Amino acid sequence: MRVYNTGRPPELPPTAAHRRRFNRMGWALVVFMLGPMAVQYVPAVILSLLAPQALGESWVVWVLSVLSQYFVGFSAAALLLLSVPAAPTGGEGPLSPVGWLKALVVSVGVLMVSNLLTIFLISLLDTLRGVTSTNPLDASLADYPMALTLLSTCVLAPVFEELFFRSLLLKRLRPYGARFAAFASALAFSLMHGNLYQMLYAFTLGLVFAWVVLRTGKVWQTIALHAAINLLGGGFLTALLGEAGTMAAGLLYLGCTVGGAVLLIRRRYELSLPRGREDMTEGGKWGLFLLNPGMIMFCIAACGFAVLFLL
Asked: Would the pTM of this model clear 0.85, i.e. be above it?
């Protein structure tokens, strides 16, 4: 059995410098989340004045959304992260095809369990509130033609989100230990989704994806995992195959849930990640990571969106 070994992380500067690093990471997350909204506003206003009918075209809205989020927002946030020192993620080389399929089975399994728990908790919350909330993801997917939705969810989102969270961000969290980097990047990935329907399964998938990159050093493997997850979970099988697609998806989800549980139990000793630095407590790392203006603003924005979607 191979044991993941990352070696000793490089020396780090004093506490104030740690906080500045985490602060920049927080502001990069804020820019990635809120920047696209500001960028979209200007062309939307111009189009409303010069060609208001254009805003009624779904492809125009899609182009504005994609350009602002995955190009302008990503680029600005990436520039902020590039100013933070990074460390290699390590890794022992890419997973074999069979290993990648096992990672996919585990990913689908944790997605299904997390999603079922989310549905239960939101149903309980709706009962207490006396209202029925709707999943904002369903509404957003219905706004565009299938081809554009497929392109954004199975190509653009996996590429840009994995590059941001599992490459740029993870490498800057890595000096604080592989375990901390995995959990912190997963938390940021969860909060970035900004709604309760996606936060829990985004966190669990973020952990799986972070483990794969830390284990392999290859972000392209999680891009492929992310694309496959979105393809299987985006309702595309149902849209393409109708009732047969729904049945196939249900059987696939059930098989992956059982198979994922078996794999996690059998390979549990390979899942552990080293804590890393011994001169910093885990509580100290989390305090520095969360208690700075950039990360506080990011958490407020994420929680604010989550509350708005319930109203």
From this structure: yes
